[in-house]
């Protein structure tokens, strides 16, 4: 029921004043204007992105590096990022053991210069003074790109799978729900999800854990893969090239990257160094473009 016009009349010329001596004045507003400003934008976006070109699952360092590389190389593509947490960024807000500095081994420092993150050069590696400086800069660059949409507080609960013309199963999108709903399926009767179809899905959901390694585990439970490789012990020199070089289309339609790939392949972990996540995300962007152009 439309609110009475009188309460939604356009306010006169805003008599605003930015004053910090007691007479700060805002432009007047109607509560419904705030609600409608959010509702229209969010649900128009949700409607438009129900069909995307690439869906990236997980906005950690690998997923965000992929989103930036993909969306800048191919501004024609509709890139939609689905992130379960309210706060995107995954594990990249801190370095290791809650310490704040972030170590990135060369040549991944090239990406820092590309997005404009300052660092200290230590020879074979560089140090960003606070991991949040890297993650917040990368997030701001990604969100400023016109062809990228981030849906946070939203979980991928399943994968859309179709049989292609060769009778092979192909991942063709994701099944989504608000994360608070996804976490409460056992407390309420069926709360059905929504869907986003896309010819390419990039899964970067991180280590195994309550929400992590989502696609790696789902591919097994749906019979598209036999078993989880299970990430091996820490070996920085072995793990980072293995993850970057191993980033690939693991089943038709789905590229896996970042620490989720370590769980899928059984490669080593690298601990508190993030160059492998950056390189894996960029490689995933190249893979997605290859698949779309095939
Ligand atoms: O940061 P993560 O966990 O994952 P990556 O692969 O981007 O980066 C991993 C990196 O932070 C490390 O673990 C470092 C290098 N340590 C290595 C080591 O040896 O310990 O980001 C994954 C994101 C998170 O933000 C999750 O909330 C999100 O994915 N996520 C999901 N989002 C939507 N739907 C889901 N089902 C889902 N599952 C996880």
Mean pLDDT across all amino acids: 94
Bound molecules: ligand 48N
Share of residues in helices: 25-40%
Structural class: alpha/beta
Low-pLDDT stretches: 5-11
Give the total of beta strands: 14
- Strand line-up in the sheet with most strands: 6-2-1-10-13-12
CATH topology descriptor? FAD/NAD(P)-binding domain
Q: How much is the radius of gyration in Å?
A: 21 Å
Number of helices, where a helix is a run of at least 4 consecutive DSSP H or I residues: 9
Shape category: globular
Q: How far is the N terminus from the C terminus? A: 50 Å
What's the level 1 CATH class?
Alpha Beta
The figure for the number of domains is: 1
SSE pattern, N- to C-terminal: HEHEEHEEHEEEHEEHEHEEHEH
Q: How would a textbook summarize the main sheet? A: 6 strands, mixed
The appropriate CATH architecture is: 3-Layer(bba) Sandwich
- In CATH terms, the superfamily is FAD/NAD(P)-binding domain
EC number: 2.4.2.60
Subcellular location: Cytoplasm; Nucleus
InterPro entries: FAD/NAD-bd_sf, Sti35, Thi4_fam
Keywords: Cytoplasm, Iron, Metal-binding, NAD, Nucleus, Thiamine biosynthesis, Transferase
Please, could you describe this protein's structure?
- With 294 residues, the chain is an alpha/beta fold.
- It has one domain: 3-Layer(bba) Sandwich (FAD/NAD(P)-binding domain), CATH 3.50.50.
- The chain is 34% helix and 21% strand.
- It is built from nine helices and 14 strands.
- The strands form four sheets. Strands 6-2-1-10-13-12 form a six-stranded mixed beta sheet, with helices on both faces. It has a three-stranded antiparallel beta sheet with strand order 3-5-4.
- A hairpin with a 2-residue loop joins strand 12 and strand 13.
- The longest helix is centred in the last third of the chain and has 19 residues.
- The radius of gyration is 21 Å and the shape is globular.
- The N and C termini lie far apart (50 Å).
- About 2% of the residues have low confidence.
- The site of ligand 48N has 31 residues, from helix 2, strand 7 and helix 8.
